[in-house]
Amino acid sequence: MSKKSYTFAFMSTTMRFIYMQVMPSEQIGVHEHPLWELSYIISGRGQRVMGSKEEPFRKGEVVLVPPDLPHGWLFSQHDKKIENISIFFADNTIRQLAVLAPEFESVLGWMATRHEAQCFMGKTLNSLQTILMRMRYENDARRIVSLLELLNVMTESQEHYPVGRLLDKNAQRLEQIQLYINCNYNHDICIESIARHICMNRSSLCTFFRRHTGRTIVEAINARRLEVARNLMRSRKLTIQQICFESGFKDVSYFYRLFKRVEGMTPKEYQTRHFCQ
Fold this sequence. Notes:
By secondary structure, this protein is of the alpha+beta class. It is built from eleven helices and ten strands.
């Protein structure tokens, strides 16, 4: 054991157990594998990536990650150390358990419907934390029993919520388009630039987007700019011209016409009604 890191692992044909204390610089990046993973973040904070979703996390969380989902915990470099426990097991493990004990069929059914990563809370979270911490001191046989206990606690609970899933290629492409629009709404966005960004030609992009969203690229760009404009009107005392340009529109008259058509009132009327409500 070194002064800056500590790791031990238990491996069997049924499961793999890993307990780690490492520096933030030694953390594993976003990755994927064909196993189920149950991870408990004992200490550390930062950004959690689950599929296409990224959001903050803090110590104490326990997350069940389904197979083949790209995921990772990107820890803040301000932490002196990070500490976590992870358990890995295969789909086949659950099926074998169900063969040995028919009572385990309900667990198999629950796992089969978990296509999204699940974050636990409440009493379920407390129970999972307790079992996982206890497993650091158990022998190999006892850890198998604890895995059964963990599976039972998770599948009998309603105290969990989804935190990310693997998107299909179409959904990933749509998210790429929307992210590009969200990041560039206040610049001169052209359809060709979006097409280059996602490696499609202009015609294919327009057809694809219309088929999957029911609207055109231009309508999506305008929707984002109008969303920004509404937020500016509610939160900052700016002129309509300033709001027009800050939200990405280049023509005040066009902004007025579009805003009134969508909102049923002029930008000035909207600002008067909603500013700092």
